[in-house]
Amino acid sequence: MKAFAGFVQKNDIGLLVPADSGIRSPADLKGKKIAFTAGSLEAPFIDRFLAAGKLTRNDVELLNVSAAAKAGTYISGGADGAFSSVPFFLPVVSSKRASTSLNFADYGLQFPSFGLFATEKTIQTKAPNKQISDISRHEKDGRVTYEVEFKDGANTSIMEVAEDGAIVKELQPK
After folding, report:
1. Residue 4 falls within a domain, yes or no?
2. Hey, what long-range contacts does 3-8 have (CB within 8 A, 24 or more apart)?
């Protein structure tokens, strides 16, 4: 496995809450029901996020749901908030339940966001002897993809790459 593009930015993880809830900081979560997924990226950081509001897990009701059930649980009102990747989750839920976010990075939880990874074999198969010359991030309908431009001398090729590193399609050079 090889990282060929790292995007060092403030992380994308946060807590989505209803826009009209009055929840503006972790301190406002006392007594609230919050959906999370035990095996997800947010789980190890929940205690530190709550501590930013001088709260512990005993002050909130944490509802462990599957990643697939999280949006439905939140939209239906089964939870007062839901931890997730804000750029993905916010567009998914906002049309049904107007929401805002409390981002981990705004409360001292700084860690890198997503990057792109591929095996050496994939890189050599898809882009032999090419150098990455440009990467741009795109969001559409809650889906994040990256355009990765490769140069091989005078030749240029562009690939659309999903967040998991899978190549979506080859694009025509601009």
Report:
1. no
2. 3/115, 3/116, 3/117, 4/116, 4/117, 4/118, 4/123, 4/132, 5/115, 5/116, 5/132, 5/135, 5/146, 5/148, 6/112, 6/115, 6/116, 7/112, 7/113, 7/114, 7/115, 7/137, 8/112, 8/113
